[in-house]
Amino acid sequence: FRERMKVITCQWRDLHAKEAQLKTHMEESGKTLKENDKMRMQALKKAIRERENKMQKESELLRAKGKLEALRNKHQKLCNRVQKYSIFNKYLEDVVKISQFEEIREVISRYKTLVRMHKDLLQSQQRHKEMSEQAKVLLDQYMEEKEAEILQYKNELVQLQLRFDQAQSDILSWETRWADIQNTTAKKTQELGTIKLAILNLFQ
C-alpha cells in the first residue's frame, strides 16, 4: 500500500507538474494568439487601406481617362472646325487679290471702320432729327434712302449667302457666279464699296 501510495504520489506530482507546464503553455499560446490576432487585424486594416487606395487610384485614373477622351474629342472638333472654316480664309485671300488691299487684316480693319462709320452715321441722323423740326422732312427722306440701301444690302447679302451655300455643293456654279460678280464689279465701280461691305459681312 505504501509503495502504491508512493507511486500515486509521484504520479500526482508529475500530473501537477504537467498541469503547470500545460497552463504555462496555454498562457504562452494565448499571448501568441493575441499577437497573431493583432498582427492579423493590422494586416487586414492595411489590406483594406491598400484596397481603398487602389480603388481611389482606379477612380482617379478613370476620371483622368474621361478627361483625356473629352480633350481629344474637343481637339478633334476644333480641328474639324478649323478645316471647315478654312474656306473662308481662302475666300478672303481671293478678295484681297481682286481688291486694293494687301492683307486680310486690312480687309477686316476696313470692315470695322465701315461699321463704325455706319453706326456714327445713324447716331448723327438721330441727333439731327432731335435738333430741328425743319430738317425732319429732309432727314426722313434721307432715312428712307438709307433704309432702301440697307434693304438692298440685305438682299445682296441674302443672294451672296445663297451663292455661298451653292458654292459648297457646286464649285463650278460658284465660280461662274463669282465671275458674274467680278464683271458686275468692273462695270459698277461706284458699288464696289457696297459689295466689299457685303462680302465682309458674310465673312463675319
From TrEMBL:
Domain DUF4200: 1-97
Keyword ATP-binding included in the entry's annotation: no
Claim: Coiled coil is one of the keywords in the record: yes
Coiled-coil residue windows: 34-81, 143-170
Taxonomy, superkingdom: Eukaryota
Transmembrane segments: none
Annotated GO CC locations: cytoskeleton
GO BP, sorted A to Z: spermatid development
Keywords, ordered alphabetically: Coiled coil
Official protein name in the record: CCD42 protein
